[in-house]
Design goal:
The structure holds 2 protein chains of 2 kinds. By secondary structure, chain A is mostly beta strands. Chain A is built from no helices and 12 strands. Helices cover 0% and strands 55% of the residues of chain A. In chain A, the strands form 3 sheets. In chain A, strands 2, 5, 6, 10, 11 and 12 form a 6-stranded mixed beta sheet that branches. In chain A, strands 3-9-8-7 form a 4-stranded antiparallel beta sheet, with no helix packed on it. Chain A has a two-stranded antiparallel ribbon with strand order 1-4. Chain B is mainly β. The chains are: A mainly beta, B mainly beta. Chains A and B meet through strand 5, strand 6, strand 10 and strand 11 of A and strand 5 and strand 10 of B.
């Protein structure tokens, strides 16, 4: 079945450090790929997405490129801020008939120190 | 402001009691979803609904029930048959089930004592 694997966490960085969070997936067909962010005590927010191979999603300084050859969608940011501290989930969406299903990774907690 | 509301934010119940979690959306979305989140785990789909008066089981439906009598509302009942109900519950909606993006509510943390 479909699955998403995220690197083990948590991750602690100093402000202005470079961030990479790894995400790989297994899916049949051609899934859409997402990164969601969850700030403390809140629900999930869509951070960025990519719907086909080689697409790059970007938002708030974060980027991720859909790599079909390596089945990866790593999240990157050149300079993190304290306000980026949150849990990050990689997810994929597959479509079967008229229905679609989101499959999430386990999430990784990012803490950014001032 | 359009969005999804879940209430209450925190809920405590005694073991053996049923409890209903509320989810309301004013986004005019046809599809709604319920997920369960446990520490260190991703979200797992409990139930989803494509349209009013229709709903389907997700990956972990046992011990849960839902209804969809109105487009805006998709309440989740955690029954006494759910063996480990303490968790964070998230409701989401999308324009339809074929659409990429799901919008999430703020969640309800249920603790069973």
């Amino acid at each position: 079945g479909d699955s998403v694997t995220q690197m083990e966490g948590p991750v602690t960085l100093s402000e202005e450090a470079c961030l990479t969070i790894n995400c790989t997936y297994t899916a049949t067909g051609y899934p859409s790929l997402f990164w969601y962010v969850q700030y403390p005590g809140e629900g999930l927010q869509l951070l960025l997405k990519a719907t086909k191979a080689d697409d790059k999603g970007s938002n708030k300084g974060f980027e991720a490129t859909y790599r079909k050859e390596t089945t990866s969608f790593h999240l990157e940011k050149g300079s993190v801020q304290v306000s980026d501290s949150a849990v990050y989930f990689c997810a994929l969406r597959t479509v079967t008939g008229a229905n679609s299903k989101l499959t999430f990774g386990k999430g990784i907690t990012l803490s950014v120190r001032p | 402001d359009g969005g999804i509301t879940q209430s209450p934010k925190y809920l405590f119940r005694k073991e053996g009691q049923n409890v209903t979690l509320s989810c309301e959306q004013n986004l005019n979305h046809d599809a709604m979803y319920w997920y369960r989140q446990d520490p260190g785990q991703g979200l797992r789909l409990i139930y989803y609904s494509q349209i009013v008066n229709d709903f389907q089981k997700g990956d972990i439906a046992e011990g849960y029930s839902v209804s969809r009598e109105k487009k805006e509302s998709f309440p989740l009942t955690v029954t006494s048959a759910q063996k480990n109900p303490t968790a964070f519950y998230l409701c989401a909606s999308s324009i339809d089930t074929g659409t990429d993006t799901q919008y999430f509510g703020p969640g309800t943390r249920l603790t069973v004592l």
